[in-house]
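Key idea: predict the complex, not the pieces.
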Amino acid sequence: MSDHHEFSANKIFAYLIFYTAVEVLWGMFFPRDIQWALWGGLLLCAFLKGYLIFTWFMHMKFEGWIVKGLVLPTIPLIAILLFGNMPDSSFNDDLLHHIGDQLDPATGEVVDLTAGNLPGHGEGDAPEGEEGGEHGH
Amino acid sequence: MSEAIQAYDPAVDAPAHHHPIYDYDSGPPVDRGKFAIWLFLGTEVMFFTGLIGTYIVLRMGSATWPDPDQRLAVGLTAINTFILITSSWFMVKSLHAIQGGDRAGMKNWLLATIVGGSIFIGIQIYEYFELIGHGYTPNVDIFWSTFYAMTGFHGFHVFVGIVWLLCAYIGALRGAFSKENYLRLELAGLYWHFVDLVWVLLFTIVYLM
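Result:
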């Protein structure tokens, strides 16, 4: 049967709520033009919360080497997958596109769907609402 | 003869060490259920990594990207995030209750976990109806494609988790769990915490960054 390990779930929960509150306030009110600080703060909060859930709520702190060994390979695999994508993402300006770009299957041309350029789509087909607030990446 | 059998002490023939003796066991020295669930969760990690990796490629390849708070109800989803984290806490309380022999407490906390998960998915469905009602369907642009792909697959996992917890709750009502026997509840809890963990990352990436 499974082992019983004592820890304060209330304390971990309090930390999770605190970090979530900080993260939401950071994301909503921190200036978006200082992107590295905005993203850094958000990711720090997210990873702290993930660490608490993984270590305490999922009992990884109390597991042996077999269970830890099952999870460990995912770390290099995640790194390989994400860094393997880098040539197609961060390091290649030739691949830059508009978020509304789609391939028109009839002509093979890349068209901007949000501008209503697809055949059979008029200007009025774009969804209502503003496109404002866009920023790099 | 029968007296000799009754007087026989198996410990006499047992090895000097005190490990349990099995007829045959080639498995690892860990609960099979726990081994299986962690192996499964490892594959789930890679599944969501694939989705997030795709999102990174598409976002970094875009000349511009809209501010999420211009398009999404960040405040409502923040409340939803609090609800899911709270339901994860309820799950821990449920497990701690049965570990302490408190069956009634275990059932109550488990029911609270299910209610929390149901509220989360209800709010997500409401958000989808609102967005689609305003014309923001997955084929509008890459922002919406990635948004629906990531939150949709996560929502499906939440739904599966709720069904799993309901099965555990029915088992609890039938007295399936005790202070000595609660592995099935623990496995359902591991899946539920994983769903919570994934949402913590998705909420940050999709709604706040």
